[in-house]
Specification:
Helix content is about 65%, strand content about 0%. The chain has about 400 residues and is an all-alpha fold. The radius of gyration is 44 Å and the shape is rod-shaped. This is LisH domain-containing protein ARMC9.
């Protein structure tokens, strides 16, 4: 301090008195303290780099790296750009699992950097391809970015960072730097300056986070509204499907009209789609089919049973198939129940036939014809599966 203030005589007197009382003078105390501080910051930055802590790394970077060097040094700007790329693709280097939220957040920060500080290198051919990085769905499979996912690229980047940090953290030249006593006198404590710079960075970071939070809240609100609309439409369609399964008439025009009240875009799709435009025709056909199904076809069981006893095996197999379809392809449960009762009341299988009958229909089970036997057993399976 005395030497910096050019108090030479006072300095000589001070040195003489210190020698008399045997008190050592620490000439390099200030320089040693600064070197220790630089080494501490350097180790912290490298540790954040190795651990993938992007927020902590750039908080230290903006706080401690000489601002003039960051603004004027092309090497420093390129190094910072490469560091931003490293942290942007870092979540995609995890082979065991990908976290979509981490990837999206990293790309949002990188996109913000490109639009702000990173714009100074937009004319540099070396970094020009990386301006498209936020818009590429899977950068790890793109040939332009293959180098970023190699361990050699990360190792090389760390070496550049380690070499740069010692010079970048020095600030002013140690020889002309003010003594510690002067810094304390003018309230320019380095730790206090660091805290203020870090506070400013955190305030900016909080402001950016709040903006992103507002955007995410709006997106979430929109998704919730769309989800409610889809649930309402799904409920209408399920109800219509249940009615169709029960055999009830379903007016598709009314169903689609109700759906469009929840999702107006369906009206546009409905007008553009030829299939949806023919719902009235479908309803007309359904109505006709319903009327047709209501008319029960009465069978002549005497002729039917006679045919099952006397006709050739191939025709008998076809008759059993038709009888099975009469059960399985009935319009609804009531029609199926009517068909079963019809078979039972008319003793289709001759279980109640007189003993003098030479051929009984249920004895078809002993037939040697494979096609007839298969058709008969399928009919029995369908017949027995219906419980009255």
């Amino acid at each position: 301090f005395l030497e910096f203030s050019k108090l030479n005589k006072t300095l000589e007197t001070f040195e003489e008195e210190c020698q008399k009382i045997g008190k050592p003078i620490q000439d390099l105390a200030g320089k040693s303290r600064r070197d220790q501080r630089i080494m501490k910051i350097k180790n912290e930055l490298l540790q954040h780099f190795d651990n993938g802590k992007r927020t902590e790394f750039f908080a230290e970077w903006e706080t401690h790296v000489n601002p003039e060097l960051r603004e004027n040094s092309l090497f420093c700007q390129k190094l910072e750009f490469s560091l931003q790329i490293h942290f942007a693709v870092l979540p995609m280097r995890k082979i065991d699992h990908w976290c979509k939220e981490e990837i999206d957040e990293a790309m949002v920060h990188f996109h913000y950097y490109l639009e702000s500080k990173g714009s100074v290198l937009s004319e540099c051919a070396e970094f020009l391809p990386y301006y498209a990085l936020p818009y590429v769905p899977r950068p790890n499979t793109h040939p332009s970015f293959a180098e970023l996912f190699q361990d050699s690229w990360v190792t090389k980047l760390r070496s550049k960072l380690e070499i740069f940090l010692f010079e970048g953290l020095k600030g002013k030249d140690d020889e002309i730097q003010e003594p510690r006593l002067v810094e304390l006198y003018h309230n320019r404590d380095l730790d206090l300056q660091d805290a203020r710079k870090e506070l400013q960075y955190l305030e900016r970071h909080i402001e950016e986070s709040e903006k992103r939070s507002v955007l995410h809240a709006k997106k979430c609100e929109k998704l919730q509204e769309e989800c409610r609309q889809l649930v309402a439409v799904a409920s209408l369609l399920v109800t219509a499907l249940e009615n169709a399964v029960k055999g009830n008439f379903v007016d598709m025009d009314c169903v689609l009209s109700a759906c469009t009240t929840h999702l107006p875009d369906l009206e546009k799709l409905r007008s553009e789609s030829p299939h949806l435009g023919n719902t009235s025709k479908i309803n007309h056909l359904n109505s006709g089919n319903k009327k047709q199904n209501n008319v029960s076809d009465n069978l002549d069981f005497n002729r039917l049973k006679q045919a099952l006893r006397e006709t050739e095996d191939q025709k008998r197999a076809l008759i059993f198939q038709a009888l099975r379809w009469r059960l399985t392809k009935a319009g609804n449960w009531h029609k199926r129940e009517e068909a079963v009762l019809e078979f039972v009341n008319n003793d289709l299988l001759d279980f109640g036939a007189k003993s003098e009958e030479t051929v009984k229909i249920f004895m078809t089970i002993r037939s040697d014809n494979h096609q007839l036997l298969e058709s008969f057993t399928r009919f029995l399976n369908a017949f027995s599966s219906l419980v009255l």
